[in-house]
């Protein structure tokens, strides 16, 4: 198809498509003589993914590029792909925030021990993000007790079990990698929305005023 | 204390402090004759909270102002304060994203029914956020099955129960309101971090490759 058709099917204006190609988020189309460039269904598909990452996931162009690069290695192990997606996404999460404190990181390590999580977890990029949140609660005057952290950890494990189960159920490697990438971003947004609804439920249930 | 001391205690440069006062995030100090302006401990405290909201919570100045305004009404019911905090925070979450589709919203309503959550939940601001995530999964080619949404809902309920329990345990109304506000923002970041660690644990546990 030509770019006009790609614009129509994807809902993305032509200049934006060309920008994504320049930024290497989208593979270039195939030049077929003269000024004609042909695009395929894979471009429609990739454009939808890009929009999900940028608009709902709120990734920068640079981070979206790093995440999408993981799609070009569909045969790497699931654990590694998760890590690539997580690291790319973390670049945005930690921009212009202070480094996590040693105390915050120690509390995350202790949490991992209490949860009985694998030793692999200690170097995970999420440890720094969680430690920053723990630090920020403390410096805002509300240090978090262990039982609160443990409730969050149990919920995170439940969510991660659903994530990994869904991913492991997909046989096509490219498709599976894509779900890992898009799910890492969009799952956060889903959790944010549902947590707010659940807060409304619990306050109603406890009849708090 | 003078602004130099406030800068030292809060780690915030004087021009930034004056900017926050102009933007009404921070109450002005008290003029005490000549060019002297006096600040108190409440300014140190509020500055830490502002930094937590802006740097870790990634709120815009406008949204942070709306959230902080909730602190000036410490006697309002818990359910209402949660709602104020949620709405202020949602302004950033939904910027420049398409409206949720009727299908996405219908799936959230069905989820609320299946979870047995209160009828109060249907109008919650989180419903729109969750519906946008559900839409984005679908348009990226990965529509989410109900059992996946239900796993997320169960986890969200667990987190919300910890949130509300912590908040309800605080007797001082101003302090309680502050935890609701700061916890709504920072709890999201905590969940993001712990979800990534838990994904690493589950992939290791299942020995996926």
UniProtKB/TrEMBL annotation, chains A, B:
InterPro entries: DNA-bd_dom_put_sf (IPR009061), MerR-type_HTH_dom (IPR000551)
SUPFAM superfamilies: Putative DNA-binding domain
Gene3D superfamilies given in the database record: 1.10.1660.10
Superkingdom of the organism of origin: Bacteria
A family per Pfam: MerR_1
Start and end residues of each HTH merR-type domain: 1-70
Protein name as catalogued: MerR family transcriptional regulator
Species whose genome carries this gene: Herbiconiux daphne
């Amino acid at each position: 198809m030509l770019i006009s058709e790609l614009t129509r099917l994807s809902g993305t204006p032509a200049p934006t498509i060309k920008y994504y190609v320049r930024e290497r988020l989208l593979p270039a189309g195939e030049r077929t003589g003269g000024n004609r460039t042909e695009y395929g269904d894979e471009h429609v598909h990739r454009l939808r993914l890009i929009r999900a990452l940028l608009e709902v996931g709120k990734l920068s162009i640079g981070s979206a590029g790093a995440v999408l690069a993981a799609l070009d290695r569909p045969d790497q192990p699931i654990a590694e792909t998760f890590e690539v997606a997580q690291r790319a996404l973390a670049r945005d999460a930690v921009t212009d925030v202070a480094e996590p404190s040693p105390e915050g990181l120690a509390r995350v390590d202790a949490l991992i021990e209490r949860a009985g999580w694998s030793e692999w977890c200690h170097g995970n990029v999420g440890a720094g993000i969680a430690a920053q949140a723990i630090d920020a609660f403390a410096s805002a005057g509300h240090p978090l007790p262990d039982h609160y952290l443990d409730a969050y950890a149990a919920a995170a494990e439940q969510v991660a079990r659903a994530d990994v189960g869904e991913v492991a159920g997909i046989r096509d490697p490219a498709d599976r990698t894509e779900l890992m990438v898009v799910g890492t971003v969009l799952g956060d947004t889903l959790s944010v929305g549902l947590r707010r609804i659940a807060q409304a439920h619990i306050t109603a249930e406890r009849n708090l005023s």
